Amino acid sequence: xxxxxIDLVILAVYAVFIFGLAQFVSRDKAGTTKTSTDYFLASxxxxxxxxxxxxxxxxxxxxxxxGMSGSGYVIGLGIASYEWMAALxxxxxxxxxxxxxxxxEIVTMPQFLQQRYGPTIRNVMAVFWLLLxxxxxxxxxxxxxxxxxxxxxxxxxxLAIVCIAVFALAYQLWGGLxxxxxxxxxxxxxxxxxxxxxxxxxxxxxxxxxxxxxxVDGFTTLLARFPEKFDMILSPDNPNYQQLPGIAVLLGxxxxxxxxxWGFNQYIIxxxxxxxxxxxxxxGIAFAAYLKLLMPVIIVLPGLAALIVAPGLVKxxxxxxxxxxxxxxxxxxxxxxALIAAIVASLASKVNSISTIFTLDLxxxxxxxxxxxxxxxxxxxxxxxxxxxxxxVARPLLGGFDQAFQFIQEFTGFFTPGIVVIFMLGLFWRRxxxxxxxxxxxxxxxxxxxxxxxxxxxxxxFPFMNRVGVVFLASLVxxxxxxxxxxxKPGTMxxxxxxxxxxxxxxxxxxxxxxIAFLIAVYWIWW
Length: 527
Description:
Number of helices: 23
Order of helices and strands: HHHHHHHHHHHHHHHHHHHHHHH
Mean pLDDT: 86
Number of strands: 0
Strand content: under 5%
Low-confidence stretches: none
Shape: globular
Distance between the termini: 38 Å
């Protein structure tokens, strides 16, 4: 698929505008230089709309748009549970987790672990997160993003990887989190507009080719042709049950995955930690929750529509790029710009958080008494290094997978049970000790690896989401037992809970009721 001149002009205008806007919001006041707080936490002055938009921009990238469209093509609407259940998870994070983090002026998740447990767990988890972000998150965005760029433009995929990396790095390198967050409202607006356009045109195309007219007829035809693809809760005889194991989506391991991602993931929670106040952060969280409810229309519907428009795709991850073939000149450039916006915004967010953890949790602990300017410089250098590594290893790591989104979930599922245990006990149980936390972290990986090996060798069939739930419970029990046998040392508990209030505003509560009502409705209709 080739882009017309007008499409290329639209893409160029987007690139110049977003780069210019990032540099504009990143400028320093006369006579001042950036501090580490300015660079890594946007001066702790982010408004709610920037927080909400940036949460979604950091989350929705190639792995969601390309990956979840591909999974929608194979699995169906059920994959939307990742998005819809995340909306409720966000509200839980805003009500119960953020007040504690903000009361203790937490900047990074490893910092919380040190103040709660001690330095060993901080160092272990800081290194773990750096490896995960570089070798799983950054590489997945680069690889899946390059698939879209290569499909649309026809350029070599390796060249596409390099172009994405250079642009994402360049527009945020000077300003840090502020450059990312204050441009994300534009990125998200473009993402939503582009997604709605492609969904609208795809459904119209289906209707026009099946004797109907309009998006309603198109959706009705899709529902009639593939009713099995609209099951939210898959039965055990469904061929995709291993990916979405029935009721466990609502009551099991998906909760562990979501709480880990939205509550304790640096490149997600960092936006809320940069809020003006707890109330401002909670408003941003509520805004993000409603954007999550909209996401399946943007990122799953194109994959469903491709069942009729492009049957027989060899690689499901080609579903979304293929659907872009339906777009007329001009709109093709706009939707492609929206896709690029999602890719670079999420990539920039992850690289910024990599530099935050490396600089503040590792480098600053070794090189003490260095200047603020020095820390910012180290942050920029580490961002460049992380991106270079991502470019070099993207193809070797992900080139052989047809559904990269499912690979990402499977891999991260090794670690998330232990992470959730560590943080949940750290937040809400004073007796939890560093020994118990390390037991949960190590036990989660070991037990997950055993289950995975048994399944791969054909000795045991166990859906990975159920595995996550079982490993979480086992890690929780182990952490509690070890904490009771080896209680925390005196003085290690430095998290302050005085003055923490879980009371939320009327608006936040109304937003919560709305999210719950929506979830009940969609699962009732398409159970």
